[in-house]
């Protein structure tokens, strides 16, 4: 997605060989034009999948998840990272380890909002080691629902999440795939056919 | 806003005389049709205010904040409830006490994204005791920016937040104003002119 890649090139800040900060347009301040485009693109990619629900995780997944849900005309559910006092229902949970924050969070979704009838599109802002993505898939599977695939805004292809999800047979659609952040430069994977064994 | 009131009546769950759970359409699962309407209505109410930025707080404020920002054609910034490892910038912060969770969180916004040139519309899902709203206003004022007003999805008018904000001269627009949750019934304030000393 060209608009997204341009934003990453122009405004992304490389903090290390593995950390890209995109808080001017994606996960602190949100660019409304870009976010609409992101929703449209995920909806286009999964338009034939008969999606009944979008699932994401707070907080940075909410914006792309919502825009996709609006385009598809289905509800979006966001998993919570800790239990809310007013979420005392029967919960579907999964443990998610964050390599960035070096901590494990339990993510949870009320059993009411993902059911065995659902075909779920999982959306997230980043795919790095894949732990959040796998946790969301685990929740969908615990509900007896089907994972239609993953829509990822920015995939850090040099980390293992993308390979992990694809090796489990999941469809992963990433709007920007980053091959490297080394030497302070963002290198995108411009053409998937060039990439062997991702 | 009739669609919102209908949703509250049909799907809201009253947990106590002060707690209304609306996680089927607002803050866990999100109804895309309702959320678009919410954004349109806030944009309409503040259309003459020359808003340059929408400010909200994670997580439940992001959806209404984003939809309003899209309608107004401006960026939305969401304050974080704890510091992120990749948000190491110069931060504008405020302390917010949650009566529901009985804990104090520091909310923070990067100084880069709210500046003295901004006229800021603050959006949140609930207004109860007004602590989060006041914290957001404090951040805007610390940036030297102007608060154009507050757009609140659900105001619990029987708690003190609404009176507190209005007494400070802030414009508060709430899409549903709840007068009482007693006896397991949601009583709306249907007409503001009927209400004395709110």
From TrEMBL, chains A, B:
<keyword id="KW-0328">Glycosyltransferase</keyword>
<keyword id="KW-0963">Cytoplasm</keyword>
<dbReference type="GO" id="GO:0046110">
    <property type="term" value="P:xanthine metabolic process"/>
</dbReference>
<comment type="function">
    <text>Converts the preformed base xanthine, a product of nucleic acid breakdown, to xanthosine 5'-monophosphate (XMP), so it can be reused for RNA or DNA synthesis.</text>
</comment>
<comment type="similarity">
    <text>Belongs to the purine/pyrimidine phosphoribosyltransferase family. Xpt subfamily.</text>
</comment>
<protein>
    <recommendedName>
        <fullName>Xanthine phosphoribosyltransferase</fullName>
        <ecNumber>2.4.2.22</ecNumber>
    </recommendedName>
</protein>
<comment type="subunit">
    <text>Homodimer.</text>
</comment>
<feature type="domain" description="Phosphoribosyltransferase">
    <location>
        <begin position="34"/>
        <end position="157"/>
    </location>
</feature>
<dbReference type="Pfam" id="PF00156">
    <property type="entry name" value="Pribosyltran"/>
</dbReference>
<keyword id="KW-0660">Purine salvage</keyword>
<feature type="binding site">
    <location>
        <position position="20"/>
    </location>
    <ligand>
        <name>xanthine</name>
    </ligand>
</feature>
<feature type="binding site">
    <location>
        <begin position="128"/>
        <end position="132"/>
    </location>
    <ligand>
        <name>5-phospho-alpha-D-ribose 1-diphosphate</name>
    </ligand>
</feature>
<dbReference type="InterPro" id="IPR000836">
    <property type="entry name" value="PRTase_dom"/>
</dbReference>
<dbReference type="GO" id="GO:0000310">
    <property type="term" value="F:xanthine phosphoribosyltransferase activity"/>
</dbReference>
<dbReference type="GO" id="GO:0032265">
    <property type="term" value="P:XMP salvage"/>
</dbReference>
<dbReference type="GO" id="GO:0005737">
    <property type="term" value="C:cytoplasm"/>
</dbReference>
<keyword id="KW-0808">Transferase</keyword>
<feature type="binding site">
    <location>
        <position position="27"/>
    </location>
    <ligand>
        <name>xanthine</name>
    </ligand>
</feature>
<dbReference type="InterPro" id="IPR050118">
    <property type="entry name" value="Pur/Pyrimidine_PRTase"/>
</dbReference>
<comment type="pathway">
    <text>Purine metabolism; XMP biosynthesis via salvage pathway; XMP from xanthine: step 1/1.</text>
</comment>
<feature type="binding site">
    <location>
        <position position="156"/>
    </location>
    <ligand>
        <name>xanthine</name>
    </ligand>
</feature>
<dbReference type="InterPro" id="IPR010079">
    <property type="entry name" value="Xanthine_PRibTrfase"/>
</dbReference>
<dbReference type="GO" id="GO:0006166">
    <property type="term" value="P:purine ribonucleoside salvage"/>
</dbReference>
<dbReference type="InterPro" id="IPR029057">
    <property type="entry name" value="PRTase-like"/>
</dbReference>
